[in-house]
Amino acid sequence: MIPRADLPDVVPIFPLPGALLLPRGRLPLNIFEPRYLAMFDDALKTEARLIGMIQPAVADGSRLHAIGCAGRITSFTETDDNRYMIQLTGVSRFRVVEEVEGFTPYRRAKVKWDGFERDLGRTEKDPGLNRETFLDLLARYFDVADLRTDWGSLKEAEDELLINSLSMLCPFDPEDKQALLEAPSLTTRRETLVTLMEFALAQGRGGEGSLQ
């Protein structure tokens, strides 16, 4: 855990549509573009080793959403073709103040961490979670979305791990992912997740893939 006082005022940002990182969540990334290889190398040289994940607000990426989540590089592997397979562990959400001009090939932003103090605290609980009802809805959503998972692990997972992992992995639209990111509490995130799954069921759609 990084103390609040040690969080930097400027972070490198990685705009990636549909990619959601949440505090204490883990996001695997495949880094291969030269600008992001440079970003990775520079981040490793810092004590915090942070990369700010953020979603574009428009298709061309010229405008970004106001809120993202910083992740700490916690593991990486270099491939034979000079790519990096890295893992980010979510630290805290942030609010973009402004982008910073400079000589780096990647984008950087001045950020504020105010308002996201709970991200640096203890694992959250969701007192309103009815696990049986939630897992029943999830099973119906997975069936429509043609998704598979380890149900034993899901049933045993703590509230935060269950809700945040599903928020990160389910194939929702980027704007829906942003709504999950901006949820002020775990309970609100679970309510948003339920709404998105119910909407997908009503539309008879979901996505394709496998959740590990």
Quick rundown:
This protein is α+β, with helices and mostly antiparallel strands. It has helices at residues 34-44, 131-145, 151-156, 159-169, 174-182, 186-203, and strands at 10-15, 26-31, 50-54, 67-78, 84-100, 107-112.
Describe this structure in words.
With 212 residues, this protein is α+β, with helices and mostly antiparallel strands. It has helices spanning 34-44, 131-145, 151-156, 159-169, 174-182, 186-203; strands at residues 10-15, 26-31, 50-54, 67-78, 84-100, 107-112.
- The overall average pLDDT, rounded, is 91
**In one word, what is the shape?**
globular
Reported CATH architecture of the largest domain: Roll
* CATH fold title of the largest domain: Archaeosine Trna-guanine Transglycosylase, Chain: A, domain 4
Organism: Maritimibacter harenae
Domain Lon N-terminal: 11-201
InterPro entries: Lon_prtase_N, Lon_prtase_N_sf, PUA-like_sf
Keywords: Hydrolase, Protease
Keywords:
Archaeosine Trna-guanine Transglycosylase, Chain: A, domain 4, 212 residues, 2 domains, globular, Lon_prtase_N, 6 strands
